[in-house]
Design goal:
The chain is mainly alpha-helical and 357 residues long. It contains 15 helices and no strands.
């Protein structure tokens, strides 16, 4: 007896899955850019100015890399069983509630946005909590392929020192740069005015949590380092992988320089601002690749490193000497790990691996 013919919809889905399996990085970049740029450019074109709505639409758009990675990883691992229901729904509800609670606890210390908002602001807030809840639930209670996007590979948990080093790396670079500036007679003002030590620690800790959840690390790292980097390193060396990823990552940010999300000096300063964006993302990409490879694929370490980058930037100014130190450190890490050499292929079932036929 002949098997029933596949429906047009199932045949199209199968072709789509095969295309993703053949071009996973391209599919990831296209899906990420489509989601993020839509939320960054369309509201700008429509003239959305309400502060909470505008800021949180940009934040929601920054979840593009993580959401794209979840979708494509699920397509590539269709044979992998999901946890039995209703656990996924319960995990999502609890994670969304936790994200919302942490948002309101940290908001007064980490952001100038008010709690009050119009209807559109509250709707976007709820969508933002759902996006964070989805990513948290996928990383903590999802199938193994989803967990690897945000945590460490099974049996490869790094030592605690790696987490601490990742969180403190960029703050120490900025402070070292300011110290060298002070020795040369330059002075920069820290963003600590009028605060005693307990107040500063509270603000810094709340900012770190808020930024980790909503300011880039959780939004992005599951995509850039959890999905794209291991996919690239399966075929090309870490250095070239990093340059490709860093370039894509930098360009991905451009609409937020155009729509007013990032402070700008105007049209005359925009080329320099975009060039600075490309430089900083390239340098950050080198550090993130080094930490990722040294910890044998821990995306959680990369999330902490990214959170340290963004949190430190809110308190400590970046000086030319700080950037110079970052350039030197990136060059040293490239040489130390010989990033121009082809990396060993990932182990079966490791980060970026595809299911075998």
């Amino acid at each position: 007896m002949n098997p029933p013919a596949a429906s047009p919809a199932s045949a199209l889905a199968a072709r789509f899955a095969r295309w993703i399996g053949r071009w996973p990085v391209l599919a990831f970049v296209l899906l990420t850019f489509a989601f993020s740029w839509l939320l960054w450019l369309v509201p700008f074109a429509l003239g959305v100015t309400e502060p909470v709505t505008f800021r949180h639409l940009n934040t929601l758009g920054a979840f593009g890399p993580a959401l794209a990675a979840l979708i494509l990883t699920r397509v590539l691992h269709l044979a992998e069983a999901l946890p039995p229901r209703p656990r996924p729904l319960e995990a999502f509800a609890l994670a969304t509630a936790a994200a919302g609670a942490l948002y309101f606890i940290c908001l007064p210390y980490a952001s100038s946005l008010p709690v009050e908002a119009g209807l559109s602001g509250w709707l976007v807030r709820i969508l933002l909590f759902c996006a964070a809840g989805l990513v948290l639930a996928a990383g903590l209670s999802g199938p193994p392929s989803w967990k690897r996007l945000f945590l460490s590979p099974p049996g490869e948990r790094p030592r605690p020192a790696w987490y601490l080093a990742a969180a403190l790396a960029y703050p120490l670079i900025l402070l070292a740069g300011l110290g060298l500036d002070a020795l040369s007679g330059q002075s920069y003002r820290l963003n600590l005015t009028g605060q005693d030590v307990p107040a500063f620690l509270l603000r810094a800790g709340a900012s770190f949590i808020y930024i980790l959840l909503f300011g880039g690390p959780l939004n992005e790292e599951g995509g850039w380092r959890g999905f794209m980097l291991p996919m690239l390193q399966r075929r090309i060396n870490p250095l070239l992988s990093t340059l490709i990823l860093g370039g894509v990552w930098g360009i991905w940010h451009f609409p937020m320089h155009l729509n007013g999300f990032y402070p700008s000096g105007g049209a005359a300063e925009l080329p320099a601002e975009l060039a600075t964006r490309m430089l900083t993302t390239m340098l950050a990409a080198v550090l993130l690749t080094w930490f990722y490879n040294k910890t044998r694929g821990s995306v959680l370490v990369c999330i902490l490193l990214h959170a340290g980058f963004n949190t430190a930037s809110a308190f400590i100014p970046t000086s030319p000497l700080s950037t110079g130190l970052l350039v030197c450190l990136a060059a040293a890490l490239i040489i130390e790990s010989r990033m121009w050499k082809l990396a060993a292929p990932p182990s079966q079932g490791g980060p970026g691996s595809l299911p075998t036929a």
